């Protein structure tokens, strides 16, 4: 089932991202304790960070729904003149309606 | 029919009609009477919108009792609302008691001069009294003040059409096309007006706008027929050179092909037999083709 694997992707991606953040924090704490200068994060944390973002992005894009075409007239294609030309604020009531629909 | 519906389906149907602006007033009233009236307590805040919708629909059907009932419910809930007072005005309008309606509207306009809905009602009253020229005059004043009200432009266009003033109607549609250049319906209607005006130049314009409408929505059957007829007309005119004629014969043939394709598509989808329609269409097209060559 595609739907649940997508959700799993989001979950794992976010979890892994949190884990990467935690690793980074740990690394900073380790550096502070050993009194070393901070230059950059270790490569494995960076890699995990990037990969988990990609995974989460992929999952979210799949989960939120179908893409719609970038086409300005798509919404209008289904409309007909019957609804577009119907103007509620200019309704008049002096027409055949009362004889057609009312049997009172 | 509607009594077998459950209340949720009825609510959704009413919502859809409201959002897409259908005018199926008899359906709205019967949905209310058969299903929702007994379940109105379940609708929550949407109830007031439904009351308004049903009230207008009932007036449209001439069903005074249902309209009164909904109007009273709204009046009790919102005693000072302009929108409800407007509904009262609508009620008097449906009774053809225009003086009383106008009194209500004028009173609202005294408080809120910019209430466009009420201004439009006053124009609608002129229309209902069959004073089309008066309505056009008032509507012109209105669109001068509220230029971005495209509903009004559309109404003005239709009023001009009723008076057979095609040049002015076409101008209104030009405004509408500028407001929404992606709407195939505006292009189609503009082309129809140009087609009605007649003359070879207008026919060429009509053909171009039908083509634009088809570009925006290739399934627009009316535009396909329009393209076919306008291209055939241009092709059969005497004042055009040979190349234009040849091009237009090509356009007409393309439109004819698309029309037959659409018919076949529908026949395939709905599994109905459209062969008799197809033959008559082909017959009609052949006849037009013959008049061109002769």
From TrEMBL, chain A:
Q: What is its main location?
A: endoplasmic reticulum
Question: Where does the record place a coiled coil?
Answer: none
Please give the start and end residues of each transmembrane region: 41-61
Give one GO term, molecular function aspect. Answer: inorganic cation transmembrane transporter activity
Q: Which GO terms describe its cellular component?
A: early endosome membrane; EMC complex; Golgi membrane; plasma membrane
Keywords in alphabetical order, please. Endoplasmic reticulum, Endosome, Golgi apparatus, Magnesium, Membrane, Signal, Transmembrane, Transmembrane helix, Transport
- Which residues does UniProt assign to the signal peptide? 1-20
Endoplasmic reticulum among keywords = yes
What's this protein's name?
Answer: Membrane magnesium transporter
> What species was this sequence derived from?
Paralvinella palmiformis
TrEMBL record, chain B:
EMC2 TPR-like domain location, by residue? 72-215
Q: Tell me the SMART domains matching this sequence.
A: TPR
For this record, the Gene Ontology CC terms, alphabetical, are: EMC complex
Segments crossing the lipid bilayer: none
Query: Its topology with respect to the membrane?
Result: Peripheral membrane protein
Note the superkingdom of the native organism.
Eukaryota
Query: Where are this protein's TPR repeats?
Result: 82-115
Localization per Swiss-Prot or TrEMBL: Endoplasmic reticulum membrane
InterPro entries xref list: EMC2-like, TPR-like_helical_dom_sf, TPR_EMC2, TPR_rpt
One Pfam family for this entry, by name?
TPR_EMC2
| Keyword terms | Endoplasmic reticulum, Membrane, Repeat, TPR repeat
Q: What family does the entry list?
A: Belongs to the EMC2 family.
Described by its record, this protein's role is as follows:
Part of the endoplasmic reticulum membrane protein complex (EMC) that enables the energy-independent insertion into endoplasmic reticulum membranes of newly synthesized membrane proteins.
UniProt-listed PANTHER family? TETRATRICOPEPTIDE REPEAT PROTEIN (PTHR12760)
Assembly and interaction partners: Component of the ER membrane protein complex (EMC).
Q: Tell me the protein's name.
A: ER membrane protein complex subunit 2
